[in-house]
Each structure stands twice: as structure tokens, then as C-alpha cells.
Amino acid sequence: MSITQLLQQHTAAAVQQLYGATVEPRAVVINEPPEQFTGDFSLPMFAFSKIARKAPPVIAAEVAAYLQNALPSISHCEIVQGFINISFSDAFWLETLQTISQTPNYGSQPAKNEVAVVEYCSPNTNKALHLGHLRNMFLGHAIAEILAFNGYEVKKVTIYNDRGIAICKSMLAWLKFGEGETPATNGLKGDHLIDKYYVLFGNELKRQVAEYKAQHPEASNDEAEKQVPIMQEANAMLERWEAGDPDTVAIWKQLNGWVYDGFNATFEQLGIHFDRNYYESNTYLLGKDIVQKGLNLGVFQRETDNSVQIDLTDIGLDKKVLLRRNGTSVYITQDLGTAELRYEDYQMNKMIYVVGNEQDYHFKVLFACLERLQRPYAKQLYHLSYGMVELPTGKMKSREGTTVFADDLIAQMQHEAAQQTAERGKVQSFSEQELANLYHTLGIGALKFFILRVNPQKNMIFNPKESIELTGFTAPFIQYTYARIYSLLQKASEQESNYSTQLSLSKEERKLVVLIYKYPAIIDDTATQYDPSVLTAYCYDLARTYNKFYTECPILRSDVPAEQRHFRLILSRTTADIIRSGLHLLGIDVPMQM
Prior knowledge:
Elements: H1 3-19, E1 41-44, H2 49-52, H3 56-70, E2 74-80, E3 83-88, H4 90-101, E4 115-119, H5 131-149, E5 153-160, H6 165-177, H7 183-186, H8 190-215, H9 221-227, H10 229-242, H11 246-270, E6 276-279, H12 280-297, E7 301-302, E8 308-311, E9 319-323, H13 331-346, E10 350-356, H14 360-372, E11 381-386, E12 389-390, H15 406-424, H16 432-452, E13 460-461, H17 464-467, H18 475-491, H19 507-517, H20 519-529, H21 533-552, H22 562-585
Parallel strand pairs: 4-5, 4-10, 5-6, 10-11, 12-13
Antiparallel strand pairs: 1-3, 2-3, 7-8, 8-9
């Protein structure tokens, strides 16, 4: 049982004994005391004033006396208004560090025997990966790793949106304007090539809509788009594809093949991988079958225009089309099929969709449809919604060709890392390959950390130059701290050995040990909240606290007593282990030297 759980349990017991009231231990709040006060933990007593019918400071004094009697390892309780600031003895923390330092994979949890499926990335095959995809991938990968560390059997999956009207737009533009162009003939990655034709379609559509509206000024943009030739051709192509027309399907396979090659090259750069790939082209028919079953059950309705819809107005949503009047599917059709297929594959206990907040409504409808179909997994689904990410220059628009490609940003970050490293001038002994590896580690790490440090629900602006800085809330600062510790441990001549638990801890040493102890709770909070920013803040706080300890507490100096040196070396190694572990869960590597 952890220290915090013990405090919660004994505080609940104190309230029961002192005031005759039952309190759930997990309802007991435990905070960190403000910097100006002493204490390792702070317990607010305000919630018990109605139960005890006493002022919070009085309750704090009475509960503190109970806790000190129940837990001899408590050395001091400071009462500040209605708070109990609790300090544990130096011996207790020294023993705690010994245990932690000898615990392999500290912070990980035993297997829960539960499967969690995490879907992320899920790109369209009509455009290249961009900055928005990066936030999605980094969130998905981090959440998957953290859930696995927290005891789940995790399956990382993606679904390629490889069919539909958007794909047909790129295909049609390539046929009309491409003159047989291929990645081999122009040197572009396949995903960038197809993105080019998606933009060309958008430009031609805009031109034709403008012409149509000049002749029909009363028409809206939506009405005009339905009437112009290029959009009608794209819709006709979609119908041919769904009918299995061999020529259309052959072009689709060729262009998608180019895109997958491009995607895979980017995934390799980022260390992203999936346990299984799903394809909408394989799931939309299953989705159509599910829609038919829903019709038979009376869950869905066929409308007078022959479309199939579900009426969700009774739960505050709208009517939603599940099949168009011409029988073609929409996005939610294949999502119904994909959900069913994943349950057949994994019988998951939870399924997390990492998708931007512009799809919030879509997932409310999807989950409502599955609940009304009484699917056994319907209540195990979660939409990890995240906000938009932009550069300081503003928003991106795929159709207009103002997208910031992931590949370009990766190259920029590695260039920034090279410049920063050159300015410090500490890697003259590195080989060219070692420098390339370092630039990749720093550049990708900075990119991932800067994006993950923001709560997923918030919109954010990614600033490449700020993200790579060696000081502040950045990955390079934390990576540098790890490299500093690694260098220190390499310089230490003696082997680690046990130390006496009778040592006295300085303020900096105590704070570092307490922070190390909290790592499992941070992992649990991160997994429960689906929020990697909790872990990024912890990693930064740990690195910052270590650097202050390193400044204030000499380690290898000749006048440091042997036992104290051993303790500080173990404290340093344990800090490095947790930094490496935390950054690994975020998908970030650590350099041995920088």
C-alpha cells in the first residue's frame, strides 16, 4: 500500500473514530504543501467541518494527533488553518529510496487482464501527414504506452480513410491533370504527390463554383458545388468505385499504394507503429450490414428519399444519415463496421478513439447508435478529443494547400537541433552518424514534448524555436539533465553500495526523494485522465528539482563522506531511471551525451 493510500485510510479511520462518520478513503484529498510551508503532504480538513461540527483548524489538530499515533514514521504535523502539513522522518524516506532503487521498472503496475484498444493517426489517403496528425499520433502513442505501463494489454491500431468522396477528388484530379506523373518521375513522396492533386481539385472546384454562381447568383456555395461538373464527376467516380468498376479500383489501388509508402517513411522517422491496420474499404460493407440489421430492428428508419437515418432528437442530437439516398455509405457507416470488427478481434474492455474535437458530435452519434443497437462494447468507448494545433503563422487548410507537412516540420526540428548543438560546441568528438542520431533525438523529442505538454482539450500554437530551447519547459532541458546524470555516474569510480538510514536529508534531497516516490501516482493520473501533459509536467519538475539538488549538494567532491556520496549517487541514478522511463512513455529518447 502506498503512503498516500495509508494516509487516506488512516484519515478516514480518524474521522470515523473521532466524529462517528463514515468516509471513503479515496475521498480524502491529499495535496502538496505550498513552497513556503514545510511538509511532504498536505491534507485539507474543510470537507469534514459539517460532519464534525467544528472549525477546520480544530479538526486538523485532532486528526493530526490521531495520524501521528497511527503512523510512527510521521515526524511532524504542521497545522496551517484547516490544513495538516505532514512530514515523514528522514529514515522513512531513506528506506523508501532504497526500495525504489531496487525495484525494476518502478511505477509500472501488474497486469489488469484487460485489453485497451487505442486508435490514432487514422489518416486520409488523399493528403500527406501534417501538423494536426502529429498531435494525434503523439497523443495516441503516449496514451497507449502509459496504459500498457499501467497494466493494460494495449493494442495500437489505425484506420486508413482510404475510400469515399475525398479520395475520389484526388483520383479524379490526377486523371485530369496528372499526365501519368508518379513519385518516381517527380521525386515527391507518394503522400505528398497525392496531396498535390487534392489541392488541384480544390482549386478547380473553387473556379467552377465561381463560374456557376456568376450565372446563378441566387445559388448558395453548397448548391453550386452539387451542380458543377467536377463535383458531379467525383460523385460518379465514387459510385463506380462502390460498384467495383475494375478500372476505377485499379487507379485507387495504385494511388493509395504510393500514399502508404509515404506514410510508412514518416512513421519510421517518428517511432510510430501499429499492431493492426484497418481500412475503411474493408469495413464499410460490414457497416452497411449493421445498418440493415438496425433497419430490421426498427432502430434506423428509411426515409422517403430512400436514405437511411437514425433519429436522436430525444437525447439532444439530430437526425443522422447512415446511408445516402443512392445507397452509398458515409463516414459513420464504416465506423459502425470498424467498431464491430475490433470487438471480434480483441473483445476489448475499453476502446479509445484519438480524434480532433471537430468530430465531437460524430462520436456522440456513433456511440448512441451502438448503444441503441445494444452492442456489448457500446459503453466501453471513449473519444479522446483534442484541440487544434497551429503554427505562429496561423491555421492550415488542406484544400487550399496551406498545410504544414509533418515531414517538413521534422526536417526543420532536426535543423534547429543541429544549430543549437553547434552553438554550444560540446560535440566536436562526435562522428557524423553520432551527430545525426543526436539531432534526431533532440529534434523529435522537442517536437513531441512541446505538443504533449499542453492539455489535449486545449488549442495550441507550436513554436519550433521555443520547443528546442535548452532551458525551460522543454524536452532538451530534461534530456540535458539525463545526460548530466549519466556523465556523473560514468565519472564515479566506486560501485554503488548501501547507505545508512540514519543520514540527515537536506531540503533539496528530501524534495527529490518525495518527487521520485510520486511517480506511480503520476502514471495513474495520466492514464485515468488520458492526459500526457500530467506526465510532461512531472518530468520537467523532476529535472528541475534534480538540477537544484545537483547545485546545492556536492556528490563526487573529496570532502563528501562516503555514505553520503553513495546515497547521492543512488539518488542520481534513480532520478535518471525515472526521467528515461517517463520520456520513453511519451515516445522520447534520451541521449547519453549532448
